[in-house]
Amino acid sequence: MKGELSEETLVGAPATAVWSVYRGLELGMLVDKLLGHVVGKVEVIEGDGGVGTIVKLTFPGTSGGYMKEIFRIMDDEKRVKETEIIEGGHLDLGFDVYRVRLEIIERDAESTIIRSTINYELDDTKAELASLVTIKPLQTIAEEVGKYVSGKKSDA
């Protein structure tokens, strides 16, 4: 069974500024700083933020709950980043594949749409697991990044 969830979040910041946060390791540092209590602690295991980078997210309030993801796609021209869980997280729950695609779409000079998409695959006998997929953390991250980038712009 394959499934997909997608959500678009409008933020009041230029696409180039939003992409500069999403494209590399700054996103993980921001999640740590602004949302660590909600999303978890992010640490770089390997890489410099480009394709092949592996990060580990340790979930808050759990004993040993974590996931590792690898950056599979980093397209600066299209402003697309795609990651895939390679250990822990949804894989431990029974998913075969769990990918996150983040697209930064310029709406106009001062606003951007962050499209967050989750693609997953699981055995047909485990279809009930699909109810565990939620886009909410990615929405929260998009909202916080939008506020952060807007705030940086007004500080300049």
From TrEMBL:
An annotated Gene Ontology molecular function: abscisic acid binding
Record-stated family: Belongs to the BetVI family.
Bet v I/Major latex protein domain location: 2-149
Keyword Hydrolase attached: no
One GO cellular component term: cytoplasm
Species this protein is from: Salix dunnii
Keywords on record: Alkaloid metabolism
SUPFAM superfamilies: Bet v1-like
UniProt-listed InterPro entries: Bet_v_I/MLP, Plant_def-hormone_signal, START-like_dom_sf
Transmembrane segments: none
GO terms for biological process, alphabetical: abscisic acid-activated signaling pathway; alkaloid metabolic process; defense response
Record protein name field: Bet v I/Major latex protein domain-containing protein
Pfam families according to UniProt: Bet_v_1 (PF00407)
